[in-house]
Amino acid sequence: MRSPLELRTADRAGTPFAVPARAATAVSLAAAGAVVLVEVTAGWGDLAWLPLVAGLLLGVPHGAVDHLVPAYRLRWGPARLAAFALGYAVVAAAAWLVFRAAPGPALAVFVLLSAWHFGTGETAFADLRADRPVRRAALPGAVLGGLVLLVPLVRGAEQAAPVVAAVVPGSDGRLPPGVGAVVLAVVLPAAAALAVALLLEARWAEAAEVGALAVLVLTAPPLAAFGVYFGCWHSVRHTARVLAEDPANAPDLVAGRLGAPLRRFAVAAALPTVAVLAVLGLLWSAAGGWRGLLATDLPLLAALTVPHALVVAWLDRAAPGPARPRARGGHVAR
User: How would DSSP label each residue in 117-142?
Assistant: First the structure.
């Protein structure tokens, strides 16, 4: 007879989220480790922008099927789906216009929104991976968001200053004096306290990941650290969630097959991804280097982030628990 722990482990293995969660965890940890390894062995030097640009490009597809997520949950038809996609585009366009009209305040709001989005994404992924209800854990989310975004931002303030200056006309792109020291003095001890709290709750994987993220943002060049986090950690884990949301993927995922769900995702994400990459290609050709690209691209990224973050927030709120079909007797339970 199997122990209760073995039974719980086997039960979780039959959920659609189990296989993509394991794959996403492995990819994210391996990518973060690779960037750190390059830094400690050879150093990124002047090539630190490569992981940043690569990460931003790799992260584009993860939000490309946002318009389908409510349809997965609510079984919407084509008319409602088209209306939602139109509303998504309207919100993005409004956010872009606000960014262009008031770039300074908009940039500050964008940074805070992104930190919240990244942090809550981490806590939601951890809850789902452990087969727990998704909790809106504000404090852990704030700590993790600060760790993965604010720490690289203040550590790389000098490199980011020309980009910020180009985005916010009339500014020198530099943080006010003392802001960087305050961020590090608050976020790093809070991250250490969060890791200890997770260890005390025997949540070993989550505690180890807090440590891995801390090593990444403190060891790798700030630009490289954020690039690998966005493209190979945050985006990959969100994609794992989307794969598990698609009802068509459930039979494959509970059977341990990841190939077909990935192909379905690739097909669904192809057109929006190509459209965004085409725009980025045009921006790149006119930007005159990676800093110019970032300065031109930042308002576009901000515009797309607003509706994306809202969709993910709805996803967390609409499904507080891991209510997913499970494999029983070789069939998917309905």
Answer: HHHHHHHHHHHHHTT------HHHHH
The residue segments making up the domain with residue 88 are 4-321
327 located within any domain: no
User: Per the annotation, where are the binding residues?
Assistant: 62, 117, 234, 238
Burial class (CB in 10 A: 0-12, 13-18, 19+), 187: buried
Question: What's this model's pTM, rounded to 2 decimal places?
Answer: 0.88
Annotated binding site for Fe cation: 62, 117, 234, 238
Instruction: Examine residue 331 and state whether it is found in any structural domain, yes or no.
Output: no
Give the tens place of pLDDT for each residue, 195-219. Answer: 999 999 999 999 999 999 999 999 9
Cα–Cα distance for residue pair 99/4, rounded to 1 Å: 53
The verdict on residue 329 lying in a domain is: no
Number of domains comprising the chain: 1
Alpha carbon distance 139, 161 (integer Å): 29
User: Tokens 């969100």 label which residue?
Assistant: 238
Tell me the pLDDT tens digit for each residue of 128-139: 999 988 887 889
Encoding tokens for residue 45? 């030097």
Query: In this structure, is residue 326 part of a structural domain?
Result: no
